[in-house]
Amino acid sequence: MDNYTDLSNMIDPELKVSDQNDHIEEEKFLNNPIVTVGPVTKQYLKSVKNYVTDGNRFVFSDGSSKVQISVISDEIIRVRMAPQGTFLADFSYALQEFAHEITSVVIKETPHEYLISTPKVTCSIAKETFLISFLDEKGRVMNEDARPMHYEENVQFGGYYVYCSKVCTDTEDFYAMGDKPTEFNLRGKRLVLWNTDTYAFAKNQDPLYRSIPFYIGLNEGRSYGIFSDNTFKTHYDFAVERKDRTSFWSDGGELNYYYIHGPQMIDVVKRYSHLTGTHAMPPMWALGFHQCRWSYYPDQKVKSIARTFREKKIPCDAIYLDIDYMNGYRCFTWNNTYFPNPKQMLDGLQDIGFKTVVIIDPGIKVDDNYWVFKEGKANNYFCRRCDDYFMEGNVWPGRCQFPDFTNPKVRTWWGGLFKELVETGVDGVWNDMNEPAVFGSGSFPDDVRHNFDHHRGSHRKAHNVYGMQMVRATYEGLSKLQKNKRPFTITRAGYSGVQRYSSVWTGDNVASWEHLKLANIMCQRLSISGISFCGTDIGGFTGEPDGELFTRWIQLGVFTPLMRAHSAGDTREREPWSFGEPYETICRKFIELRYKLLPYLYSAFWQHHKYHLPVVRPVVMLEPEIHINHYREDEFTFGEKILVCPILEAGAVNRKVYLPNGTWYNYWTQQKYKGGKEFVISSPLDSMPIFVKAGSVIPEAPVMQYVGEFEPEVMFLKTWYTDKEATSLLYEDHGDTFAYKQDIYLEKTFRVKGSNGSFTMEQKMEGLYTPRYEKYQHTIYGLPFKVRHIEVDGVEIKRFAIDEQGVLEFSSTKKFKKIEVLA
Ligand code: GLC
């Protein structure tokens, strides 16, 4: 291999000309223009000279630069480029520990290329051009370089700007990338990843709070993903500069990306989650309704809000304390005037079933009489500038210094700071302002130094992971302090992998119909970007919603994994009763629906945690090939079985929905539809179109005012007839402990099957948990025959009821193996 002929003079001459254009266009787009000295210095990889192999890793060289191709699994291939031939230390905050699942890897050499193949994917490296492409098992190109990877020296900071440019075909669309407030399909967008505090962000504003360098390409029904694990400011161009190209480039670090094979979009997301992890099982209460406000104080106000929920019988599990609970906004303190006895208040809230979540920001007030500042200063835990001055900036408390959360010692210290809050009875922690946000300047200057888990770097490298490492420290601290209880955290900033430590919300949105639409899209996008546990400020953070907008937002909120209402301090009151009737009754009805669906949502989280499936799934994921005219970016499935079509227009009393192929039932009316086309569905304010897939078994709980209010005596199983076969899942465990990690859980699979005059349902169970209820209360919808006979495990049951619409009701033991419903 070493004697490979140098063919660099065969590079397409057009390529050299286009270097110039690339450079100009990319530079125009940079927020901080590159300081270039002299002529353009962009260097492209030249022809391959040789390669060496080491197990599943192959390192190709063009004589000076090196490219490492490693096979991570049968479907995931990693590409790294070292401009001067030396790879950086291999370290990632994004990746979790994962198994390398590889069946076999072979490398083959042809006259023009090297081919590295697993049973599913082939990576081709063209000898003359160093162009890299990925092919499926049939040899069809999934993704290919448009230009060789390239780089350019950064004369200001050292290191390189690194670039990758891919071919984009006319039929290719792009998805994922975290929280971007724009159309769901990203084709035609230029995006930047640089965590930014964006109060009252606008549609198309970019960048926002999170950096998720992962996109999914979908081309004629076949999908792949590209995850570029580079924490520097990173730029994406999805066919804007040139219709036939998608590019991404970072302001430093290594070009280091993972090609993730599909071809199903859901498999790309699963595999991305295999790399970066999933949320742990949340405590069940965290899936209930959360009420937040900037800020509820003093303590009497907090108590009265909580009491009103109970008096009005509107279910709610969590109440939040925003920054005013603290003494002068000093983290880990209480304002003694507003909260003279926090323990008593928290106990009182607990007595009526409320969990309390408190905000903690990263800025620590510079105050030599404040214990947190003193400890941080004494131990050298705060960030410093390049010349050793402390990084100081103004946030809520005034002058602040900021812990370096990329230092493992600092994270341990930070985690321990929650001791008193936990002992006082705080149940969850909300990390905000962790982009990090600084008043005036926006964020830290580039020269701030970070430990980066002993891989030192400037803020350019650490900025996008700062918030993630903060919430990681919080999560790990709470895990220790709350003993065998699952921590609940919520964060604003994040980087790929943040889902291992926290839920997220989409930040400071606006009370407008446009933002309701964005909320819907952003949660779908986060969900397919690995962040299933996400939500938006219901009602809009800033501005005033009217009763209709608030109610429609609550309706959407039922189907976002995190359901939290929040509002800014200068707005009118914003609780579910604030708008009077009919809004209050409708909000109650929908929040009750959320509580009924908790066993279903909890099972969807299990499917996320264990099987890496997103909780919210856009319709395009179900039917990647659907005709573009039918595709509605505003619809999604909640879990696997429920199709949600939120109402996003003022005054709407109906809406057009697209039902994917198959049979669907209207959740409210039980009307049956044959999918694959559009329907107009009536949806006055007290309704919203929700459909259930035929063959689904949806577990529902009795309505409670909060999780654990009482021990239910039955589990409701609602089943929708199918004349085919279908399976559904019900997951159960203690709801708040880590026992599930020791297999103390129960995973039930229901298999249903309908045919002429008979409908059967089988149950299989796995795991060691025993729920307390003894019975299932069954409801079966859509049976196409008159029921005469029902058997549970071979024994006829006589007690059943059928209403005029043919809906069947009966009960069975929770342990049944087979139920037969016969004509
Ligand atoms: C930020 C947060 C918001 C919070 C406010 C005060 O704007 O995004 O949710 O209420 O700060 O802490």
UniProtKB/TrEMBL annotation:
Transmembrane segment boundaries: none
Top-rank taxon: Bacteria
Stretches assigned to the DUF5110 domain: 717-782
Keywords of the record: Glycosidase, Hydrolase
GO biological-process terms attached to the record: carbohydrate metabolic process
MF-aspect GO terms: carbohydrate binding; hydrolase activity, hydrolyzing O-glycosyl compounds
Domain Glycosyl hydrolase family 31 C-terminal: 613-698
InterPro entries to which the protein is assigned, alphabetical: DUF5110, Gal_mutarotase_sf_dom, GH, Glyco_hydro_31_AS, Glyco_hydro_31_C, Glyco_hydro_31_N_dom, Glyco_hydro_31_TIM, Glyco_hydro_b
Record domain Glycoside hydrolase family 31 TIM barrel: where: 280-604
PANTHER family according to UniProt: ALPHA-GLUCOSIDASE
Protein name: Family 31 glycosyl hydrolase, alpha-glucosidase
Source organism: Solitalea canadensis (strain ATCC 29591 / DSM 3403 / JCM 21819 / LMG 8368 / NBRC 15130 / NCIMB 12057 / USAM 9D)
